[in-house]
Amino acid sequence: MSDSVPAPDAPHLQTIQALYSGHHGWLYATLRKRLGNAMDAADLAQDTFVRLLKSRQASPLREPRAYLSSIARGLMIDQYRRRELERAYLASIEALPQQEVPSAESRLLILDALERIDRLLDQLKPRVRQAFLFAQLDGLTCTQIAEKLGVSRATVERDLAKALQHCYRLRYAEG
């Protein structure tokens, strides 16, 4: 999985440039007011337009501010989840005996892996994700998961197969 953006075609680039010129200031001000932090607001405003650039949304938008707000809201949720994940991980490290605390480099690698796993799980449908987490984290059997989710064992098996296929595809797509 790469964060590189393919070269945009001219109409797409013109659309993005017009949106950026017309709405970046508004989006930044809205995010700054909501977040109370100029740096986070600037980052999220920029990331919103990068996301739009990657989306290849070619046609002009009827409600550009609503669309930009929707993208920014998703990015804010992602940012919040990443920070919560980092806080939980750092809290778990504090509970370790000093000799077991990972190095700063290891902590960064672990946090990066946790964020990739979180993004991977976020791509799954909610029931598939829940079944996968029950199986992987709680060690539940397909029958136990089926009971918890109120579905058949066969449905759980299909959901787990989908989750594992998704993991496999992403793992080998990354190289």
From TrEMBL:
Pfam families noted in UniProt: Sigma70_r2 (PF04542), Sigma70_r4_2 (PF08281)
CDD domains, sorted: Sigma70_r4
GO biological process, alphabetically ordered: DNA-templated transcription initiation
Name used for this protein in its record: Sigma-70 family RNA polymerase sigma factor
Domain annotation RNA polymerase sigma-70 region: ranges: 19-84
Molecular function via GO: DNA binding; sigma factor activity
Family of the protein in this entry: Belongs to the sigma-70 factor family. ECF subfamily.
Record keywords, A-Z: Sigma factor, Transcription, Transcription regulation
InterPro entries: RNA_pol_sigma-70-like, RNA_pol_sigma-70_dom, RNA_pol_sigma70_r2, RNA_pol_sigma70_r4_t2, RNA_pol_sigma_r2, RNA_pol_sigma_r3/r4-like, WH-like_DNA-bd_sf
Start and end residues of each RNA polymerase sigma factor 70 region 4 type domain: 115-167
